[in-house]
Structure formats: structure tokens, C-alpha cells
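Teaching note: in complex prediction, the entire set of molecules is handled at once rather than each chain in isolation. The prompt given to students was simply: 'Predict the structure of this complex.' The entities are:
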Amino acid sequence: MAERPALATRALTRHFGGLTAVREVSIECRVGEVHAIIGPNGAGKSTLINVLSGELRPSAGAVELDGDDVTGLPPHRMSRLGVGRSYQKTNVFLPFTAVENCRIAAQARLASSMRFLRPALANRAVNEAAERALAAAGLEARAETPVAALSHGEQRQVEIAMVLATSPRVLLLDEPLAGMGAEESARIVELLRRLAPDHAVLLVEHDMDAVFAVARRLTVMVNGAVLESGPPETIRASRAVREAYLGTEEPVRG
Amino acid sequence: MDLHTFLIQLLNGVQYGLLLFLVASGLTLVFGIMGIINVAHGSFYMIGAYLAWSLTARLGSFWIAVPAAIVITAAVGVLLEWLVIRRLYGRDHLYQVLLTYGLILVFEEMRSLLWGDDVRGVPVPASLDASIPLSDTLSYPVYRLFISGVCLAVALLIVWVIQRTRLGMTIRAGAVDRQMVQSLGIDVHALYRVVFAGGITLAAFAGMVSAPVSAIAPGMGNPVLVLSFVIIVIGGMGSVKGAMLASLLIGLVDTFGKVMHLEIAGVRVLPELSSMTVYLLMAVVLLWRPEGIFGRRT
Amino acid sequence: MGMSRSALALALCVAALALVPLAAETFYVQFFAKIMIMAIFAMSLDLLLGYAGLVSFGHAAFYGAAGYALALTTPQYQAASFWTSLPLAVAASALLALAIGFFVVRTRGIYFIMVTLAFAQMLFFLFYDTKIAGGNDGIYIDVRPVADLAGWRPFSLDDYRHVYWLALAFLAAVYLLLRAVLRSPFGRVVSGIRVNEQRMISLGYPTFRYKLACFVISGAIAGIAGYLAAVQFGVVNPETMGWHLSAAVMMMVILGGMGTLLGPVLGAAAWMLLELGLQGLPEAGGVNLGKHWQMFMGLFIVVATLVLPHGLVGLARSLRRPAERNNG
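The expected output is the structure of the full assembly:
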């Protein structure tokens, strides 16, 4: 386990007018662990991810990457610093093929895009990174299919593959399993297990089986604030957590 | 510049700004509520002016001509919405721009066929054909004060309708969520017809009321349209408050720019390049707040 | 194998077009040259419209700027050099696009349309109202540029056939250039920005830079067209920057088919032929229809926008598809 957290927040807060969506959240994510954020709908989990990825500016508090203050940096800067983010609502390039989606993601990191005359397809490093990412997500058979023609679950796989193609160090995954069937979910869970040793993974999920199978650390958020944070056994045993979230209703798996 | 000249330019600037506000508010309301960009909006300014000229000549009185022209314009607006505009809902802005540009060409040629290509004029109505003396040599035309007054009254009317009537409430709701309004059983199509007809009538009314002090000529709608765009960019799309602020700003900057003398590094900048001042203003706003002063930040 | 077949077809078209001046009358040669110049202009706009998704309503500013650059740098009663005046004119257009783009690329959607029109109109009025360049009468280019290189004259711009071949050469060159650019890493980024700009940003692309670069490239190519047009006509006026031209070139792109390289070429041809046909309309019912051709053009635009959203290329594709189904 790394000593310094790859990603850390200090009293991170985000208001929307009168509503406080994220309230003084201080969490850490280290390389080698999958840190899952769970909580009921409206707990502020997606807002937290949006602030961490740079798409929203925090109202107060700080975000640190390897100890460096990166608070308020715009999304493309965060991405270049090694923070990759996937979306809960599939946010891909629908007219492009699956492999083209990954290529454009890989190109961001591996090649200079201010090149005007050589064909993009000639860049071997980009092609290989794209194919590897697609294979990791289990979609290599559908590489040349336009994403618009893929099933919803396959599109979610493209969503994840794109993040992998940018070779990030920190992965912010916003409900990656949403809308996936049992087989695909199992594949992604296995992927997360393989990624964990070399990456810091912050995972927002409702799929409790997946969360408990792969997460080394859990943080429960309710109403924008951290209710409890700790290893899975502690969270499972915690009465407060059970009342707030786990005990009332089992979320239906998509 | 002495005080009296300054006062005259100030009144001119405000009058020009208020006139531009009528045109711009029509454009911004149509876009804000219906999501339609109508580049033929300026053509209605021209149509209003020509109607005022033609009907004054025919009916003998400016005061009868204007209400008649308003009714005709509103009817044209309803017809146009039903025939063509409603096919633009939800479509790409590019197609809206192109289609309404096609309408500009049609309107220009129809104007040419109906009323010819010469520059026309409407005499200031007798009841307002007087001047208020400001000093022993300078006086200010009453009619221009009348224009400002009428524009201000219409502006207040717009605000009142939107803020205090049920129609206005429906309009505001429709601007926020079209489908919700529809599912509440409100006839969105009728609503849009009213809004569109109202929007272009505002532009036409500006043309009518300014006819006695402007040159009624082919293509007179184009500069007004471009200025409306500048106003909306500065003020923020969909914001009536922004349109008012920006209109007055532009009216004053443009008016004073034309009479001031300014040299920078030996080059005569004002009044020669006065037409560029409003674009400079727009450029500054684009650097500072690209969505406009009162625009919604996306 | 489909690639080389279409490449062969295109090469044959170019060859056929090259033969036109040997067989056709002066009027048609000049008219076809005009179409090809408009095609270059339309392709430049398609880069913005069809590939970057930026609806620029003031593209004529860059077309006209190049013509004015030529007129203003041609010494009175003397000829400029083709080899210096062309790069100069294109650079003028590119710089103008950089200056305007710096402001307008900050905006999106409807704002972008409005500000591009506004800045273009600013330039139009600048040239129309002031005496910087002849006001609304424009400037005559008394003597056309010469292509002399150390005593050798490869072609003469006074010869209407040479102008035609020059336009054809540039059309082919611009087509090949754009095809390469669209397949390059830059081209992929531009397409990505059109499809989903937010995702591009989150992947790490500073999209402002790419949109601005695209705007400049597009403006520079429009400058090539504007230069050739000024050479052909020998006169420049503010209308070459006006919004009627901006709207016309937009219609050419839409009519032909956005987001395809050949679409704008077809659209330019269709538009110019339509304009010619409408202008030649006879008198009917005491009204000179030809004089009011713009009304018919306007009606055509209204109908075409409603009926042909994917332009002629889209129409051709949809006609071909049922045939393919029958074969397969």
C-alpha cells in the first residue's frame, strides 16, 4: 500500500444555491485499493465525483493529488494529471466505432493532436492502447461496431474502456455497473480486481455484491456528508449504516 | 461639448436604445420561449415602417395607420407561424437560420413588388410636430420624446404581462419545460403562435413608431437585426432585463460615438469608426462573460 | 477496393474538367471556374459546419478579406506577383480568422451563430462606410497579378483558361488537403468535439485550441477562394464580405450535404446553376421575374431546408440504399 494517498479531499463542500450537495467530505484514495462510495440516491455521490474530476468547482475545501493541491483545476487538466473518470449516464461518441472511441481517448495521452497531415490510424501506440483497453473491458469482438448499434450493457463497457485507454493512475468510476447484466458485471468486477494493485480506484456503486467483492474501503454518504468510513466488515456491522441505507431496502440490481 | 448638446445626444441615445430594445426583446422572447432563432426578425422592422408609410398615405392619418398596421402584422405572424415556423421546433439552429434567411429574401422582394425600391418618408403627425426649447438656439422634437415614452410604456407592458398575468406565467413555464406545459393540457401550439406573433409585432411596431424620424429604405432591417444580436449577446439570451440594459448601453455608445472626436496615435478613430464601438463592447463582454451579463451559465 | 474505385472516378472527373476549356465557350469556362472557386469556399465552410459542428454565419469575411488584401497590395496600374500576393492574401484571411476566432470560439450554439454574423457585419460596415478601400464602390484591380519567376511565365492570369485551370488545380489540392486533415489526429479531435465536446474535455483535450485552429484553417482556405475570385473579376467590394454571401455558401454546404467533402462541391454547382437559371427568368404578367429572382431563391431555400435536411448527397445515399437491399 502506498504511503501518501493518490487522491485526497479535505473538507470538500459544494453548494447549489441553498442546497448543500457535498458537505465537508474528507476522504482518501490510495494506489492499490478500491475505495467504494455508497449511499442512498441524492447523497451527493455523483456531485463528489464531478468535483473531483474538475467539472464542478468546490465551494470550499481542497482536493489533493499526490499531495499537490489541484483544487479547482478544469477537467482537461485533471485528466492530463492522470485522473480518469467514467460517467453514470453513458457519455460516449455514438457515431464512432468502439475502437475509435478508445483511440480518441488514447490519443489524448499518447500523441500530439496538432498533427494535420499524417493519418491518425498510422499511430501504432495509440492503436495498441485502444485495443488493449477494449480487450480489458471485454469488448474486443465488437471493436468495429458503431457504439450506437451496441446494447446498453456493451455501451457501458465502452464507457469503461475509454477511461482505461487514457492510462490514468486514479480512476473515478460513477456507477460503472449500472445497466449491466450478471455476466458483464462479473467481468467488470474482475477487471477492477486486476486494476487495483496499480491504480487508485474511487468507485460509486449501488451493486452491493460487487462492492463487497472488490472494495478494500467503504465510505457511506448520506445527505452530502460522510456517515461512516472504514473496511467492509466495519461498515457491514455498523448499525447506523444499516439504518440509513443497507437495512431499509436492498437496491434492485440493473 | 456643452450641456445642451450633451442633453440632446443623451435623449437621442436613450430613444435609440429604447427602440432597439423593442426589437431585441421580441427576438429574445421568441428564442427564450420557443427555442427558435428568427433572422427575418429585422425584416419585420422594415415591414412595420413600410406599412406605416403605405397606410398613412391611404388612410390619411398616422394614428389610424399604426393600429391597423399592428393588426395586419400580428395576422401575418400567426399565418407565418402556422405555415412555416412550427416546422422548425426542435430542429437544429442551423436550419432555423437558413429557413428564416430564405424568408428575408422573400420579404425583401415582396416589399420591392408592393412598395418599390425608393426611399420613403412619413411626416411627423401634426399633433406632435413641435419642439421643446432647450436653449435660445437648440430645441428637441416632441415626437422623439414620444417615441421614448411609447417604447418605455411597451417595455413595462411586457414586464407586466410576463410577471403578473396567467399568460405570462404559462410563457415562463413553457420556457423552462415545454413538455410539462403540454402535459398540463395547455395548448402549447396556441401559446407559441401568440408569442411568435407578439415578438414580430414588437419589431414591426418599432419600425412603425420610428417611421417619421427615419429613412424608410430597402434593407433597413438588416442593421437593426445585427444590433439585436449584439444586444442579446451582451445582455444574455432570454433575459428581458439584459436586453434593456444592453439596448440602452448600445444606444448611448453608438450615439455619442458618432458625435465625439477621438484621436489615438494620430489616427482619427471617432467619429470615423463609430460603427465599430458596439462590436468592441461585444468583444469585451465575450472575454468577460461569454453567456451575456444576465445570461444563464451552461 | 471501394477506395481506389472512387479515387479513380475522381481522377477521371478532374481530367474531364481539365478538358472543358478546350471545347466550351468563354462564358461557360468562366462560369465553371466561378463554380469551382465557390466549391473551394464551400469546402472550407464544411470543415467548420459539417466536421467541427460550428455554425459560422460570417464566413464571407475571410473570403472578402483575401480579395481586399490583393487589391490593397497591388500597386496602382502595376501588377503584383502571384507568388507573393497569394500567400499574403491567405495569411490576411488566416490572421483575421485568428483574431475573430479568439473571441467567437468562446461561445456555443446560438451565441456562436450570432457573434460570427456580428463580427462579419462589423467588417462589412467598416469597408462600406469608410474610405479605407473605396467604400461601397469597392476597388478595381487594374492589372492582374503576374506569375513571373525569374523571367519565365508559367501561366497568365489574364487568360481566362489559365484562371480556370488554376481554380481546378486548387480545388483538387484543397480536396486532398482536407481529406488528409480530416484523417489526421487533428481531424479526429475536431470530429470528436462535434459529437461530444464535454467528453473530449474530460478526456484531456483543451478544446478551445482545436476549435480555434479549425477556424483559422477554414478561414485560410476561404481566403484562397476569395483571392481567385478577385483575380477572376478584377474588382472587390464589400458584398464579398456580406451576409448574403455567407448565407449563400452555407446553403451550398447544406444543399450538397454537410460533413462530406464532395457535398459542398455539388452544392456549389447546384446553387450557381439555380441562380443562373432564376436570373434568366422571363417576364410574366408584367413583372420581370428575373429581376426578382431572389424571391424564388428564398422560397427555394425555405422548401429545401424543410425537405432535404441531408442535402443532395443524403438524397443520393437514400436512393442507393433500397437498390443495395435488392441486390443483397
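Point out the following to students. The CA atoms of residues 120 and 216 of chain B lie 5 Å apart. The mean pLDDT of chain B is 88.
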